[in-house]
Design goal:
Elements lengths: L7 H10 L2 E6 L13 H17 L2 E2 L23 H17 L4 E6 L5 H11 L7 E6 L18 H10 L26 H5 L13 H22 L2
Parallel strand pairs: 1-2, 1-3, 3-4
Bound molecules: zinc ion.
């Protein structure tokens, strides 16, 4: 059930028996020459909608612009909310949903730069909300995926596989590359990103993905989120 497609009465009826809401959050962020800027948003939204279908829980509208202030802001097309702005947006989402009776909040996160703002937002509201629980899942961190995916990074084979499965028409296979990039153990200012981190916008060992791996990654992620809903509601 997508909140955007429900009427007020349907929300009221839902809240008589349930107070869980699933919140997809992604990014508008470069993902190399080959993948769409919406990679993280498409992934989070499709996972959230599938989890909503399987659990019969409400899915809030996707927050489709994330915090990309480090690294990928240097590349064309990226739209970034600063960490403090994104935290404020999430706090207002949570407050609105809480106001109407939602008490269990599951973030389906598609982008690494959102992890800290989500956590900060939860820390803002947790002392004043009552009887509420919060969970955050980022698919690439699920241990259920460990045998399919070993830290394949930004715009790497994990995300290539995912988009080949979810939106194959948006993958420019002729522009996939093999540049290997590794994050150093320090952070850099934006002027140093293309000199020290990545020239292609990829932070990974490979873009060698495939559709079948994407299907498995998606399915296992959805299963992990369904379990997280159960945990949140136990
Ligand atoms: Zn991504």
């Amino acid at each position: 059930m997508e909140l955007l497609k429900m009427s007020m009465r349907e929300v009221k009826n839902y809240l008589k028996n349930n107070d869980t809401v699933i919140i997809p959050i992604g990014a508008t962020e470069e993902h190399s020459d080959a993948l769409p800027l919406g990679t993280d948003t498409i992934t989070a939204e499709r996972m959230a909608i599938e989890v909503g279908k399987r659990t019969k829980r409400v899915v809030a509208p996707t927050i489709n612009t994330g915090n990309c202030h480090s690294i990928t802001y240097a590349f064309p097309g990226t739209i970034s909310l600063s960490p403090s702005t994104l935290t404020a947006v999430i706090v207002d989402y949570l407050k609105s949903l809480y106001k109407h009776g939602f008490r269990k909040f599951l973030f389906v996160n598609g982008h690494g730069g959102n992890v800290s703002p989500i956590r900060c937002a939860i820390d803002e509201v947790a002392p004043v909300f009552k009887n509420s629980r919060f969970a955050v899942g980022s698919w690439w961190k699920f241990k259920e995926l460990a045998d399919l995916y070993d830290n394949a990074g930004h715009a790497g084979r994990g995300e290539v596989s995912m988009i080949m499965f979810l939106a194959p028409n948006l993958v420019h296979e002729e522009w996939l590359t093999e540049e290997k990039t590794e994050l150093p153990r320090y952070f850099v200012s934006e002027d140093l990103v293309t000199k020290e981190i990545t020239k292609t916008g990829i932070i990974s060992d490979s873009q060698n993905g495939d559709r079948e791996t994407g299907r498995k990654l998606f399915e296992k992620s959805v299963e992990a989120y369904v379990n997280l809903v159960k945990e949140l509601e136990r």
